[in-house]
Write a structure and sequence with these properties.
The structure holds 2 protein chains of 2 kinds.
Chain A (H helix, E strand, L loop, with lengths): L1 H27 L5 H5 L7 H10 L6 H14 L1 E5 L2 E5 L6 E2 L4 E2 H6 L2 H28 L4 H15 L2 H15 L13 H35 L2 H8 L4 H23 L1 H15 L4 H11 L2 H29 L2 H4 L1
Helix pairs in contact in A: 1-14, 6-7, 6-9, 7-9, 8-9, 8-12, 9-11, 9-12, 10-11, 12-13, 13-14
Chain B lengths: L1 H16 L8 H11 L1 H18 L1 H6 L47 H37 L1 H15 L3 H17 L6 H18 L3 H14 L3 H8 L4 H9 L4 H25 L10 H8 L7 H29 L6
Helix pairs in contact in B: 2-14, 3-5, 3-14, 5-6, 5-8, 5-9, 5-12, 5-14, 6-9, 7-8, 10-11, 12-13, 12-14, 13-14
Chain lengths: ~325, ~325
């Protein structure tokens, strides 16, 4: 078991390192001059450009730049900007010269909003997806089964951002049925009410695939011999469905759930942008517009770490449940 | 796995047990099932309709009447500032000259933009799906068949790509690549737009081949140990022939299914990128861009927003449902 976890962790670490190196090369050794991007066009002069180039170390060899960035991730580093020294503690993701704040401050303060959105959406899609999936499996072949499967197919097939945009435009902005997003400083109640519309649409669309996973898994489980045995013993149907069937049917769903975190991250990015939720994805997109490389790099790194760590945790958890995994 | 099993039984047992009926290939079986599937037929008709709109866009646009103010026929790119007031709001509505009215601010004909907008979506969807299928199949075949170090490298690359936050990375890479290609040269907006179009396809393919490669690799790993492959190896068939003549035909089903699901996925991706600002750029007519531009005036000018919303949603929906039907048609366990 321990060797499996170690091997799997080493793989995860290698992926994170490769992301770090390739993202760094892409952003800092690419054709775009980061200093130019950080220098506001109207107020940019050669002296200022040089100061920025120096302060972010762009005049140094690439290897040295990378090592500085790398070191910053583990022990933190200092930035000198316009005469002031700013300390950035580990894990230091850099310093945004567009907003003149550290990337950590920019991103970590917004991360909770993304997590709240993702969790609320997860609650919606797990409850809706599993409930309707079981319903469809139990009434297999009936009109309600066909309706649920067909409906989930249609919902899952329309481009997600179009659905989200229509929800944001009509019920939220035009008709005012659901409140718009407001930051948590305006109060906890309005904050969660504002999260309702984005979380609902993200959750509902994601639930489409869960309806089908749950239905298939449940149908497979209900066709097992032990379910027939349970029924033949005269156990009531409810107990058969929920105690014997449901529990067994849920373990593959739990795996997919863990692996879907990456997809959910993409979903929150689009959702945040459309509903104006001040999360990490929206901040990353804003950084793209101003070509704020340290912030883009930070967002990509955080995203990669979240995905890799979630996959790792799912794999390890699964190896406890199913011993065949770690032997292969 | 199931598809592969059924192909095996179909090819080995059919001649012995059903000597009267001629054996059908899995592809023929799937085609027969697909033709009976009503949803698939309806979807295919819708897709065909969009293909015709894209191909005959110039003809369709020429059906619009000559505009009385500008005295010209409509086209997707000509700006008519005389059709908008000083606030940029259109002074003409939907008419025989402009079936969907004109675009606020630029006064371009909205129907022309809509009809031409079907083109990039379809081209990107099909070209990217084709290219990523080739790459995915090749890498999956090589990794799965050769095993050893090359397999380790390929699986690591697959794992690596699958754990990247792809949307964000793609959003960041596209403008950078564009800058690299266009560095130091003065390009017209049309040229910039064309470069962006191809950059988009390349990037979508680079980040889109992994799923199929992983699938093919797994299948090849199990096929490699089968008797017919070992027999081929024993009589000295070259590796290339084993891969493409012995193994690949067994994977036709999963590959077609994966490609048919990839087309709507790429169209969605392109529209999403265009909406988020890293996709197609002006003056290319694109549904994703139109939706992004139209959302600010959605309540006043629904004719700006809705045709693109409906076009995009309907096309992607039809392609996805057809993909689902194709998957069911190749899957012997599904009986609908």
């Amino acid at each position: 078991m321990l060797t499996y976890i170690l091997r799997r962790s080493a793989l995860a670490l290698s992926v994170i390192m490769a992301t770090l190196v390739s993202a760094f090369l892409l952003f800092f050794a690419g054709p775009s001059d980061p200093a130019q991007a950080m220098c506001p066009e109207t107020k940019c002069n050669p002296a200022r450009l040089e100061a920025i180039t120096k302060s972010i170390g762009l005049d140094k060899p690439l290897i040295e730049q990378f090592l500085t960035y790398f070191k910053g991730l583990f022990v933190g580093r200092d930035f000198v900007y316009a005469g002031d020294t700013v300390h950035c503690g580990a894990p230091c993701l850099g310093f945004s010269f567009v907003t003149r704040r550290s990337v950590n401050e920019e991103l970590f303060t917004r991360f909770p909003n993304t997590v709240v959105l993702a969790l609320m959406a997860a609650v919606v899609f797990v409850t809706v997806g599993v409930t309707f999936g079981i319903l469809a499996a139990v009434r297999r072949g009936s009109a309600s089964d066909r309706g649920l499967v067909g409906g989930s197919q249609v919902l899952g097939s329309i481009p997600y951002y179009v659905l989200a945009l229509l929800v944001a435009l009509y019920p939220v902005i035009l008709w005012n049925i659901l409140p718009q997003y407001s930051s948590i400083s305006a109060g906890v109640g309005p904050y969660f009410m504002g999260m309702l519309a984005p979380a609902l649409i993200l959750g509902l669309v994601t639930s489409a695939s869960y309806v089908r996973y749950t239905r298939n898994s449940m149908i497979e489980t209900l066709s097992m011999d032990y379910i027939r045995t349970a029924r033949s013993k005269g156990i009531n149907e409810r107990t058969v469905l929920f105690k014997h069937g449901f529990r067994a049917a849920m373990s593959p769903i739990a795996t997919i759930l863990g692996l879907d975190i990456a997809a959910l991250l993409t979903g929150t990015l689009i959702t945040e942008q459309i509903f104006g939720v001040d999360g990490i994805g929206r901040r990353g997109l804003a950084a793209l517009r101003s070509f704020d490389l340290p912030v883009i790099m930070g967002t990509v790194l955080i995203g990669a770490v979240v995905v890799v760590v979630m996959n790792l945790l799912v794999d390890i958890a699964y190896s406890f449940i199913d011993p065949r995994v770690r032997l292969s | 796995m199931l598809t592969e099993e059924s192909e095996e039984t179909a090819s080995t047992t059919a001649p012995e047990t059903q000597d009267v009926r001629t054996g059908r290939s899995p592809g023929q079986v799937a085609w027969a099932r697909l033709k009976r599937d009503k949803v698939a037929v309806v979807c295919a008709v819708i897709i065909l309709l969009f293909l015709l709109i894209a191909i005959f866009a110039p003809f369709l646009v020429s059906l619009e009447a000559v505009d009385p103010i500008t005295g010209a026929k409509a086209d997707p790119s000509t700006v008519h500032t005389e059709l908008v007031d000083f606030n940029g709001l259109p002074t003409v509505g939907a008419s025989s000259a402009h079936w969907l009215g004109v675009e606020p601010r630029l006064g371009r004909d909205l129907f022309a933009r809509w009809a031409y907008g079907a083109r990039p979506s379809l081209i990107i969807g099909f070209v990217a799906a084709f290219a990523s299928t080739i790459i995915g199949v090749t890498l999956g075949l090589v990794g799965g068949y050769l095993g050893g170090a090359s397999d380790k490298v390929i699986s690591w690359i697959i794992d690596f790509f699958l754990s990247l936050p792809i949307l964000l990375l793609v959003l960041a890479i596209i403008p950078i690549m564009q800058k690299r290609i266009a560095a130091g040269s003065d390009l017209t907006p049309e040229e910039t737009s064309a470069i962006r179009f191809w950059v988009l396809i390349v990037i979508l393919v680079v980040f889109g081949w992994m799923g199929l490669a992983r699938l093919v690799r797994g299948e090849v790993k199990s096929l490699r140990e089968r008797e017919f492959v070992q027999a081929a190896r024993a009589i000295g068939v070259p590796t290339r022939s084993i891969l493409f003549r012995e193994i690949l035909p067994n994977l036709v089903g999963p590959i077609i299914v994966s490609a048919s699901i990839a087309v709507p996925a790429y169209i969605t991706y392109e529209a999403t990128l265009s909406y988020l600002g890293a996709g197609l750029v002006e003056p290319t007519a694109s549904w994703g861009r139109t939706i992004a531009d139209a959302q600010n005036l959605f309540a006043t000018y629904p004719l700006w927003l809705w045709p693109s919303v409906i076009g995009l949603s309907l096309l992607v929906l039809a392609l996805s449902l057809l993909g689902d039907s194709i998957r069911d048609a190749f899957d012997p366990t599904s009986r609908r």
